[in-house]
Inverse folding.
């Protein structure tokens, strides 16, 4: 049974490796075709007059920038959609916290001895802090200047 299991795993790995090799081979073929197209375009460009070469170069750059802009717009839309989703989640969690706090205030204090102990522990921890700002000693003059301004 163990030998068969190992054999099956080996065959799975071999199959995955072959599929991956095939995908990489296809990718290399596509890249070679793209390289050949670019070489053809480059050779044709060299045969053109300097003015047409400049115009062609500008068109190529405009196309590249347009595609880059479209990619950035798509990324922006995704980020905005994610921001909206996160804001909705935050509202839901804020509501849950408010509901939880409201339910805690309705429970009599005698039923919450554990919670009272936790508050005391938190208060003691807060008393141990000297301040709220962490900074490097060499940044102190900059920090003071920023606080003043």
């Amino acid at each position: 049974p163990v030998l068969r299991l190992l054999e099956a795993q080996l065959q799975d790995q071999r199959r995955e490796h072959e599929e991956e090799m095939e995908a990489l081979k296809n990718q290399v073929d596509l890249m070679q075709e793209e390289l050949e197209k670019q070489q053809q375009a480059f050779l044709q460009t060299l045969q053109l007059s300097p003015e047409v070469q400049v115009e062609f170069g500008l068109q190529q750059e405009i196309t590249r920038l347009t595609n880059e802009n479209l990619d950035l717009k798509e990324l922006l839309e995704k980020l905005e959609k994610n921001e909206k989703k996160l804001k909705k989640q935050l509202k839901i969690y804020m509501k849950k916290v408010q509901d939880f706090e409201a339910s805690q205030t309705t429970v009599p204090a005698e039923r919450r001895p554990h919670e009272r102990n936790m508050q005391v522990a938190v208060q003691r921890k807060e008393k141990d802090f000297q301040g709220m700002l962490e900074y490097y000693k060499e940044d102190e003059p900059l920090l003071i200047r920023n606080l003043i301004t």
Residues 120-127 have pLDDT under 50 and may be disordered. The helical segments are 2-46, 50-106, 113-128, 140-148.
